[in-house]
Amino acid sequence: MFDHDPENATERPPMPTASAARIAADLRAAIEQGVYADQDRLPPERQLADHFGASRGTVREALRRLEDTNMVVRKVGSGTFVRYRAGELEGDIAKATSPIELIDVRFGIEPQMVRLATVNANGHDIENLDHALQRVCAARDPETFTDADEAFHLALADCTRNPLMKCLYSQLNEVRGHSQWSKMKDKILDAARISEYNRQHRKLFDAIAARDSNAAVEHIVRHLKTAKDHLLGATEELL
Amino acid sequence: MFDHDPENATERPPMPTASAARIAADLRAAIEQGVYADQDRLPPERQLADHFGASRGTVREALRRLEDTNMVVRKVGSGTFVRYRAGELEGDIAKATSPIELIDVRFGIEPQMVRLATVNANGHDIENLDHALQRVCAARDPETFTDADEAFHLALADCTRNPLMKCLYSQLNEVRGHSQWSKMKDKILDAARISEYNRQHRKLFDAIAARDSNAAVEHIVRHLKTAKDHLLGATEELL
DNA sequence: GGGATTTGGTCTAGATTTGGTCCGATCGAC
DNA sequence: GTCGATCGGACCAAATCTAGACCAAATCCC
Fold it and tell me: Is any Cβ of chain B less than 8 angstroms from the Cβ of A72?
């Protein structure tokens, strides 16, 4: 577990020696690797001090850093307990995200994205968005529509001219493609709904092209509400 | 890496082995190749001097050059620490994102995050958030505050119980840590502003704990507006 | 219940480590 | 010789680490 070796200090010259920092790093690694699970109690400070060959004060300094990052909770008379929910960010984020959770996140990002797009898009961006709109409007089957819809929303992200927004949204879009949503889309997407979505897409585009920020936000919110309603409807059908 | 050979020094009269330039180059290469990671502490100057077979003054000259190129930071009584963002994925996005763009994205995500947190957090989550709040409220200097603030917002993301939200926000938070914001924080964060932020943090927590979604959203929006105002103010000062 | 033990919280005094600074000496190159 | 780089010290101030003590809360054990 703690393969700390005091002799390392005299080993190769380029060995980063540091007491509190190194102890904190070792403990952090142990926790992240699951040596200590969530809610587990760490060894007492005095025992850790002995193990690391450091004084108790140094160990306490290391533990204080772990506590500052909410990784650990210390209780007088009881001990130091791990507070780390391992495995929640592990693996494929797409598999860990449900369609309804995806919509919840989209409700946060997309209105602001549309607002920024309305303000920041230049003529070239609008052209690209228009092009994407033509494609999605031409789609008739669920498969084509899903792809084109994804491209449309990515073009929308481009319109914000905000690198961080583009980065985050492209990740969200990937989850969207891989998520369980895609298994439901055949249930959700019929011709009527596709054309409904496309009417909303067009209104959204018109608002952005007209630089009408409020209208654009209103349309994207309505779009998301529609999608959520369809999703919940489909969920009920699955029950 | 450090293939210095003392015997060569006595063999050849011209000894390019021990010059400040060469030592600086070696250390730079070691850092770039990951021998020393970001935030790691380099060996002490005296130890480096011994290792390179050079005097401490020469090593200091080499370190001075690394410091001039912002590769390391030196702290009296503590050591020399690596500051080098090994071009990670978010490293690029962090460099491409301005503080104001970061705020723009936060304006989208955080209100929704708070809304979801208010609805989805369980007692354990609230406890964690409370713990993080105590930490951030206890912070007095910009350095501690920044770390604790980051932990608080991550705990907030945990409260949503939404894996996608947590994933996206943790990325946003990394950009926040690496972004040019960190260079401005000393200009922005004085004691008065820190306590102002903390008042907002507390109100936000109280609203979430009381499951008052609207109040929580209102507080986070006010918080972001305050941050944006301070940012724009600091920007003006820089002009 | 009650005392003993364990555990984290706090404090202190002193030793150690570490970068910052200064000085004079040495050596090679121009 | 002069100049620049290096060397080998010495000393300083800041940060850190150590070692020990005592406390209060929690827990254990009889």
Answer: no
